[in-house]
Structure formats: structure tokens, C-alpha cells
Amino acid sequence: MSLDSTRAEGAPRIPRDVVSGSGLRAPHRVWHRLGRGLVGELILPDQNEYDTARRTADPRFDTATPCAVVRCAHEDDVVHAVDFARRWGIRAHVRAGGHCPLGSSTGPGLVIDLSPLSGTVVDGDTAWCAGGTLTGAFTEALDAHGRTVPTGRCASVGVAGHTLGGGTGPTGRGHGFTLDSLTGARVVLGDGHVVDCDADHHPDLFWALRGAGHAAYGVVTGLTFRTRPARPVTEFLLGWPADCRARVLAAWQTWGPHAPDELSTTATITAGAPDPALSPATVSGSWLGEPTGVEHLVDDLVAAVGQPPRVRTRATGARNTTPGSAIRADDVGARSLVLRRHEFFDRPLDATALDGITAAMDRGPRVGEHRRLTLEAMGGAYGRPAAESAAFPHREALFGALSEFRPAVGATAESRAAQEALHGVLRPLASGAAHPNHPEADRADWRQTYHGAHHARLEEIRVHYDPDGVFGFPLAQTARN
Ligand SMILES: Cc1cc2nc3c(=O)[nH]c(=O)nc-3n(C[C@H](O)[C@H](O)[C@H](O)COP(=O)(O)OP(=O)(O)OC[C@H]3O[C@@H](n4cnc5c(N)ncnc54)[C@H](O)[C@@H]3O)c2cc1C
User: Which of 118, 210, 214, 404 is the pocket-test mutation for ligand 1 (most atoms within 8 Å of CB)?
Assistant: First the structure.
């Protein structure tokens, strides 16, 4: 399993501290040599574009001052940037959509920005996309060929970032996690080698990428997916008033995770500032079948809630319109701050727990603060592959719970405390696992939470493919434990 190393023995190493903070103190000639070798751009702190180039989609990390940003327009640029980072002992921050809630796609080191490396090729039942392609562009290209791959809805999320951590979405109970459709990947390793991996080539790397691949083993420059024919999708939304929230969650949790695979649903409750797009208690779903086929299922839910919804809408797309269409790429809340936390649950919540959750949601929101808790049904095709089939270990979950708190201006600490209080109620009832696509820096045991029983094997694979530690698990570098 050994790989040749391209590392030049005795190559000069700039100590890490010379590139920390906002200073670029490495000799200019060294950087300019890197810049001259690129098809894309090297952006240094003294350039006008730097201030834009250094920022991610998350305003919490606006204070990060990378020593440089390489905007990669060709795979060779990635190789040059990785080589440079390794030779000079600079940490690499790999970025595509820039949504990582840990801020791992920025920092004091060298940002390897893949966003110019974008494009999708659809060929029969296979689709290939470049490592910086965003979900919106990917799904548009698939739509144009009448094909689909299950992804999330947010158009500005990177396909690689979404897939490498798992990937749930509105057709997931029918088609599985996004990672389950991945059939191969091309990776620039820490030693500068480029490898293609799939079930037969570097199968250990391919296994690890699917669930624990966020920049831990290398930079993924291309992804190959098995596609399916895009079938019409019926989307529905039901809305109830605030006093139905516990009742809606109670009815949904025994319905959504056990529905036929064709039905993927979420139940959402909100508190604080009203969300004009949502009632305080909603159930939304996507149905992969004849539009009329879902009506009796929805009626079952309404009967279980015991009160008719005040909003009930249904629309059928000509094709699989689910991913990418709902949120525009330039509309990530205009980069507004959203605090996200995630838990998986293996069993339903009882009435006392549901009352505790709604009470925690309602405790003291500030004017302008918005709070949302979304339960997403698992089961179906999410749970079918064996836990060992990919690094993603949490196949048995009944549902996931994602809280999203949008703080009032100047009151982030208060929002964070309120969210922690909510999770103080949720966590003892949860399974202890969480989705690697919603990582948090302060989980007590991130290895168990995100990688479960797979962590030891992942660590062996990481050491093998990145012996110099050019990458490393983002959580290992940001977690406080
Ligand atoms: C509005 C919104 C909605 C979301 N909805 C869902 C959802 O429905 N389901 C779900 O599963 N997730 C969802 N997510 C989470 C999202 O899938 C993850 O945060 C994802 O990792 C973001 O990828 P990115 O490229 O946008 O971010 P980045 O910050 O660029 O990357 C995220 C991580 O992946 C690494 N990375 C990125 N590209 C590569 C690459 N080519 N090679 C190697 N490493 C790479 C980065 O270094 C970083 O560690 C949502 C996020 C947001 C903001």
C-alpha cells in the first residue's frame, strides 16, 4: 500500500509561526514562484482582491487572515499548492462552497480555493463533476440530461463538501445519502501524487472519503456519480399554529421515518421572530411517485395531529426539481450568521421531552432573533447499506435534528447560550451521533460522534495517505477536546 513520496528531503521549511496572524513574512520571491506556476491566481494579503478571497460563506470567520489564497483553475494548481504547503510547512485549508461551520476552509495557512474548478459532464447513467462544483450548477447540469443524484437543497454548498460528509436531502429516503451515489473520486494527496480511487482502486481511501473525507486525506478534484432518471417530484407543505408544535412533532416522528421510501419529510418548529416563509409548525415533504399517491399518507399525518393544517400546498415538478432550486446561490441569507447544531435520534421522543423542547425553544428570544428546529426523517434508503459499506457510520438513525439559530444583531452570545440550553434538553435523549456535514467544535468526543466505530480505521488510512499531516481531520484541529 505504500506510495512514492515526492517530498524533497531537506526542503526548506518555514516555521509555522512566520505565516500566522495577518502577516505574510515568507519571502516574496517564494510566493511569486508559486504564482508563476499557476493557471489560476495566487492572491496575497497586499492585493486588493485579498479581502474578498479570504472570506468564506460564514461571517464568523471573517477575522481569519490566510497567508495566501490559491484560486485553482486546473488540477495542476492544486498539486502546486499542496506541494508548496507541504514543503514550507504551511497548513492547507481546502475550500469550495465555504460553508464549513468549523471555519476549516479558512485560517492562517494557505487557502486552496477550488471554486474556479467547476463543471459537470453527464454521460449516460454517469455524471462527473470537478472538485469545486456547487450543488446548484451540478443539479442544473443533471436536470438538462433528465438525470438526478440525491443532494441537499442549498445551491451554494459544494458538491464535494456535501458528499464527503454524507449528504441528506429531499429525495434521500428514496435514493440514499449523496455518498451512496459516489462511484469514484480523484484526489491530490499530501505528497503531491494524484490518485483515482473507487471500489477497486485504493478502496480504503474511497471508503474513508465517503463520510469522513472533508480534507482529511487530500483534495478531491473530481467526483464520479451513478445517476438515476429524474422522475417527477411532488412537494407538499403543511402548516399549523404555534400551539400545535409539540403535537406536530409527536405525530410526525411515528410517521415520517416509517413512511414508504418514496417519501422524504421534515418537521420544523420555530420560535422568536416570525419566519414569513413558514408557519410555527410545519411538515414538508417530497414524494417520488404519482402526485395522488401521497394524499392518503398526508391524511394519515393530519389525523394523527388531530387538527387540520391552516396551510396545505402541493406542487409537482416536471422533473426532479428538488436540489438547487429552492435556495439561490447568491442568497445564503446575505451571509447572515446562523448557528447550527445537529443530533441523531434512534428512538421517538415522549410527550414530556417534546414539551421540554418547545419550552426551551421559547425561552427568552431577543427581538429579531429567529430559532428553528428541523427533524429530518431517516430510514428508507439511508439505512439500507451496511454500516461498514462506507465511513459514514450512522445508518440506523430514526431521524436527525438540526437547530438553526439566527441571532439578533449584537446578541450572538445570547443566541448561542439559548441554543446550548435547547441541546441540553435534546442531547440526553439523542443517540450521541451527529452528521459530519454539521460539525461542531465543542463535542465532547468528536471521534465517536462523527465516526463512531470507524474512527480507528480512519486514522490508519489518514496516516497512510497523508503521513506528513498536510491535511488532518478538520475536527482534530478545531475541537477543544
Ligand atoms: C444552507 C445550508 C443547507 C445545508 N443543507 C444540508 C442538507 O440538506 N444535507 C446535508 O447533508 N448537509 C447540508 N448542509 C451542510 C453542507 O452539506 C456541509 O456544510 C458541506 O460540507 C459544505 O461544503 P462547502 O463546500 O459548501 O463548504 P467548505 O467550507 O468549502 O467545505 C466543507 C469541508 O469540506 C472540505 N472540502 C470542500 N471541498 C473539498 C474537496 N474538493 N476536497 C476535499 N475536501 C473538501 C473543506 O476543507 C471543509 O472541511 C447545509 C449547509 C448549509 C449552509
Answer: 214
Q: Which of 480, 477, 479 is nearest to 109 (CA)?
A: 477
Instruction: Give residue-wise pLDDT tens across range 413-451.
Output: 999 999 999 999 999 999 999 999 999 988 888 999 999
The helix/strand/coil state of 13 is: coil
Q: Which atom of ligand 1 is nearest to the CA of 332?
A: 1
The response to whether residue 215 sits with its C-beta less than 6 Å from ligand 1 reads yes
Distance from Cα 197 to the centre of ligand 1, integer Å:
21
99 lines ligand 1 (CB under 6 A): yes
* 393 CA to centre of ligand 1 in angstroms: 18
pLDDT digits (tens, 9 = 90+) for 177-219: 999 999 999 999 999 999 999 999 999 999 999 999 998 999 9
Residue 221: closest CA among 230, 231, 213? 213
Q: Is the CB of 96 under 6 A from ligand 1?
A: yes
pTM above 0.85, yes or no: yes
Q: Mapped to the 3 state alphabet, what secondary structure does 149-217 carry?
A: CCCCCECCCEHHHHHHCCCCCCCHHHHCCHHHHEEEEEEEECCCCEEEEECCCCHHHHHHHHHHCCCCC
What residue ranges define each of the domains in the chain, with the CATH number in brackets?
Answer: 16-113 (3.30.43.10), 120-230+453-478 (3.30.465.10), 234-448 (3.40.462.20)
Give the strand order in the sheet containing 218-226: 120-123, 126-130, 218-226, 182-189, 194-198
Beta strands 263-272 and 339-345 are: unpaired
